[in-house]
Write a structure and sequence with these properties.
By secondary structure, the chain is mostly helical. Helix content is 94%, strand content 0%.
């Protein structure tokens, strides 16, 4: 029963974390409106579309994660009551897949893309390209910040699942 509390606590922590994607998305959208209304230079006007796209992407990510984790909070109890061992096994498989995604995407691919964006900023003079690269860089930094904390939470949750699996086998 302790693992059910841990699972629920993890999902609730994710519910607290995912609105930050939405808040940053709103920030990017507000910046896009600001550039649209107040941008006088070619460089400022070049930020309108990239920040709008970044804001939309963050909103989609945040809303998707929010509703997915909200449904999980309820489903955890149902799944655990049906079969605790199967629940732990399924969660271990899911958390391992998520940890693998973090290793490949968040901690390898995103830093590589950030490096290429930074190099592109140094090498490209066109305002739309620079604005796009800078916005992409900012978007990826936001994702790294939020997913870095999510990674730590899911790693802790996965350790608790392994302990519970050992307890259920004994």
């Amino acid at each position: 029963m302790e693992i059910l509390k841990s699972a629920t606590d993890w999902a609730k922590a994710e519910l607290f974390s995912t609105p930050f994607f939405i808040l940053f998305g709103l920030g990017f959208l507000a910046a896009s409106v600001g550039f649209w209304q107040l941008g006088k230079t070619e460089m400022a006007r070049a930020y309108i579309v990239p920040t709008m796209i970044a804001g939309g992407l963050l909103m989609i990510i945040g809303l998707g994660l929010f509703f997915t984790n909200k449904a999980r909070v309820v489903q955890f109890g149902i799944d655990y009551q049906a079969d605790a061992t199967a629940f732990v096994e399924a969660e271990l498989i899911r958390t391992e897949a998520t940890m693998q995604e973090y290793r490949n995407v968040v901690f390898k691919a995103i830093p590589i893309i950030i490096i290429f964006c930074a190099l592109g900023i140094l090498l490209i003079d066109k305002p739309i390209w620079r604005a796009s690269l800078i916005t992409t860089l900012a978007l990826l930094v936001v994702i790294l910040l939020i997913d870095g904390t999510a990674h730590a939470r899911i790693a802790t949750y996965q350790q608790q699942l392994h302990l519970e699996k050992g307890r259920l086998i004994d």
